[in-house]
């Protein structure tokens, strides 16, 4: 069995990190794995570059030609698309192939097509995709509601590398830093993080750190200046070693408008940094309120500030959350489990394909 993994680019992001970790870890005696993606700094994280092809972000036709050659020469059986754009690439490659090629789609985020044209989205997926991997049960339910066939959907949660994100949390340390680690985009709602910092300014002696880069940088800097928070809120820029950033802060906030199942919550749970999160998407499948973290239903800055104060002042609650969070990650969200479960989907889909081909041959005898 030969598998080709595709993603748009190798710029730092949840889907892209997933892609790199999966490609690095996949191994099976009877399988060969290949990959292609647009350029980005995460290329340095790939250990299997011998079987990697770089895509051109500006030429879809050039990419299709390159990938068609890969599919033919490497006798690809399964294409694993990690974005909707790569699903469309895969459908074209599927139509050009001279033999059956199955498509697996891991759905990492909410797409424009499903929001604006849900019937078209589900029709395309049902017709062309053999297996949809969702990273949360919540997202699986959403797809079923859109009309995607439930029989082709399976949930494989994101997994965190427990060797990289080691547990070194002292719950008795002085609580001084609150952080957020995210792409600086509208959907991540970093402005609300700044609002929470402003609410805490006169209540707690805390430093608020924003890790990440993105299109909202200037707007966020302007807001920090307008609220006179230059001493309280710091923009730290790109974070190349998330494990170090997460260990350096005492509380992680997640403030997004929407989420599917963010990797950062698992990483924080693994290192022992307690989480206060908005309850969106599949977050609640990992962050269990008052057990493995704190969940808040609405974007209420006063509620966030109150929970920061509780975690700051109550060592017993903080320790309870930290210990339970690490235990849950070890049990349910390891990288090895994610890789093995994904590999099982490749094998199962390939087996199903072979059985269908056998039945077709028998029907023509």
What does this structure look like?
This protein is an alpha/beta fold. It has two domains: 2-159 and 334-363, Glycogen Phosphorylase B (Rossmann fold, 3-Layer(aba) Sandwich); 177-332, 3-Layer(aba) Sandwich (Rossmann fold). 44% of the residues lie in helices and 16% in strands. The protein has a seven-stranded parallel sheet with strand order 3-2-1-4-5-6-7, sandwiched between helices. Helix 6 (137-146) links the parallel strand 6 (131-134) and strand 7. Helix 10 packs across helix 12 (315-332). It starts with a strand and ends with a helix. The mean pLDDT is 92.
Number of separate strands? 13
Derived from helix and strand composition plus strand pairing, the structural class reads alpha/beta
CATH superfamily of the largest domain: Glycogen Phosphorylase B
Strand order of the largest sheet: 3-2-1-4-5-6-7
Tertiary shape = elongated
What is the H-and-E element order? EHEEHEHEHHEHEEHEHEHEHEEHHH
Taking Cα atoms only, what radius of gyration do you get, to the nearest Å?
Answer: 22 Å
InterPro entries: Glyco_trans_1, Glyco_trans_4-like_N, Glycosyltransferase_grp1
Protein name: Glycosyltransferase family 4 protein
Pfam families: Glyco_transf_4 (PF13439), Glycos_transf_1 (PF00534)
Distinctive features:
Glycosyltransferase_grp1; 365 residues; elongated; 13 strands; single chain; Glyco_trans_4-like_N; 7-stranded parallel sheet; Rossmann fold; 2 domains
